[in-house]
Design goal:
The protein is mostly helical. It has 16 helices and three strands. 56% of the residues lie in helices and 3% in strands. It binds acetyl coenzyme *A (ACO) and oxaloacetate ion.
């Protein structure tokens, strides 16, 4: 990918603060959470262990992890007033808007009264966000009021269970676990920065998370996994995919799921989720979507030296698990809420209101004209 100057647009390359949570694009190890390489976490950890690492500052021992999983399980229920609100939202709504409303409504019902409650508030959000999206989805699409308090051991299995009504296979639970780990944290990305800006005014956790959900929704950020799916599902062969991609590049269209603001050569999360997408493709005897995705990857590298980011192979992986496309980005929320909350803790612990300057480019002096004399 061509290097652009760092200064100016998008604050690219400028440090906007410090963090002990994550490194992105550091030579030698593409992505670390509190010093742990993402590859090792994705292979060995439970998502709840990673959430604990991010939110509490260290890996839990077995007793601590068991207690944490037990605590999260106990926080999956929805207050009646929140269910009532979710039931008002039409099936045509975008699920990210449902997530935003859900987080905001929870803030009305379970207000963070002081920063001393921040750990509990974050654990509650982590536990309840899958319940929020699945309760709305099942009610608006299937007309059923589901029970959200399942006994599933993991956040990922809980999500799939609520969505389908049955506990998921071991393979699907494993892929969800890996996916949630990969999406959990990524330094000063747009949604996390949104959360930190909000936190810097000493606002409450629900406001920080609600704002972050709004930032994640866009197709240049978390929404890219859905946009990538909308694109690749149109193609029935690698040859067709290649022809279409070449046309899009010629027309200077953006290819969703490719490129990155920080990584220059690859996104370390891609190889991991791509491997799981391949396994799932074999599981469902896919002969189209995975080969199409691989061809798009090859063409983008050959033509533009652009690589898949975390979102591209998430599209096929989620699709193979029968997850509706419009729920892809909400799953990202269910994971990234850990990173957002951990960043809010950091911001609060060493706060100064975030308030940069702007280069003024407007008129020097404007002349007041009475309203009746204006054009
Ligand atoms: C989990 C995540 O949020 S990962 C990101 C998810 N987003 C996407 O997949 C959306 C598609 N990708 C993009 O829009 C961009 O690559 C971003 C938003 C991720 C990064 O944006 P930037 O930092 O501005 O990109 P960058 O400066 O490196 O771009 C370099 C050049 O490559 C082009 N480019 C970058 N990504 C793409 C793409 N996906 N398709 C086509 N061209 C692209 C840019 O237009 C730019 O060309 P130019 O110099 O002629 O203007
Ligand atoms: O870091 C970024 O700009 C976007 C990203 O990959 C993420 O948030 O996971």
């Amino acid at each position: 990918m061509a290097d652009k100057p760092n200064a100016g647009a998008g604050l690219r390359g400028q440090s906007a603060g410090s963090t002990a949570l994550c490194t992105v694009g550091k030579t030698g190890s593409g992505l670390t959470y509190r010093g742990f390489d993402i590859k090792e976490l994705a292979e060995k950890a439970k998502f709840e262990e990673v959430a604990y690492l991010l939110l509490k500052g260290k890996l839990p021992n077995q007793v601590e992890l068991d207690a944490y999983i037990g605590k999260l399980k106990g926080l999956r229920g929805l207050p009646a007033a929140l269910k009532t609100v979710l039931e008002q939202i039409p099936a045509s709504a975008h699920p990210m808007d449902v997530m935003r409303t859900g987080a905001s409504m929870l803030g009305n019902l379970e207000t963070e009264e002081s920063f001393e409650e921040q750990q509990d508030v974050s654990d509650r959000l982590l536990a309840v966000l899958p319940s929020i999206i699945c309760y709305w989805y099942r009610y608006s699409h299937d007309g059923v009021r589901i029970e959200t308090e399942t006994d599933d051991e993991s956040v990922g299995a809980h999500f799939l269970h609520l969505l389908r009504g049955d506990a998921p296979s071991e393979l699907h639970a494993r892929v969800m676990n890996v996916s949630l780990i990969l999406y959990a944290e990524h330094e000063f990305n747009a949604s996390t920065f949104t959360a930190r800006v909000c936190a810097s005014t000493l606002s409450d956790m629900h406001s920080c998370v609600t704002g972050a959900i709004g930032s994640l929704r866009g197709p240049l950020h978390g929404g890219a996994n859905e946009a990538a799916m909308d694109m690749i599902e149109n193609w029935t062969s690698p040859e067709e995919a290649e022809r279409e991609i070449m046309g899009m590049l010629e027309r200077k269209e953006k290819i969703m799921g490719f490129g990155h603001a920080i990584y220059r050569e690859s996104d370390p999360r891609n190889a991991i989720i791509k491997g799981w997408s391949k396994k799932l493709a074999e599981d469902v005897d896919d002969t189209v979507l995975y080969p199409v995705s691989e061809r798009v990857e090859e063409v983008m590298w050959r033509e533009k030296k652009l690589f898949c980011n975390a979102d591209f192979f998430h599209a096929s992986a989620y699709h193979f698990m029968d997850i509706p496309t419009k729920l892809f980005t909400p799953i990202f929320v269910c994971s990234r809420v850990t990173g957002w909350c951990a960043h809010v803790f950091e911001q609060r612990a060493n706060n100064r209101i975030i308030r940069p300057s702007a280069d003024y480019i407007g008129p020097e002096k404007s002349q007041w004209v009475p309203i009746e004399e204006r054009d």
